[in-house]
Amino acid sequence: MPSARLGKEACAGITVPMDKLDDAVVDHLERRLLHDERLEVLLGNVLDRRAEWIDRRQAHVTELRQRASAAAAKLSRLYQAIEDGVADTAARTSRIA
Fold it and tell me: Of 13, 27, 81, 90, which has the highest C-beta tally within 10 A?
């Protein structure tokens, strides 16, 4: 395999030691991506979305509890009507199942 460092195929550009290049890249990332204000905005957005998601979940749970309560009340009224002889059990069995 020919070397790109020596001879007529050598790279004409400048060479940079790996540790200096690593330091330059890390420094750039720290300044651009990990800037305090930028992180505050990003994390603030994440926290806002999380709070909205929690609110939606709580509203959904409340709705499900209300629906379960309404269904329990209907069943209670149906059982009471059956016990009182007002409702026909054969006619209602198909609706319950």
Answer: 81
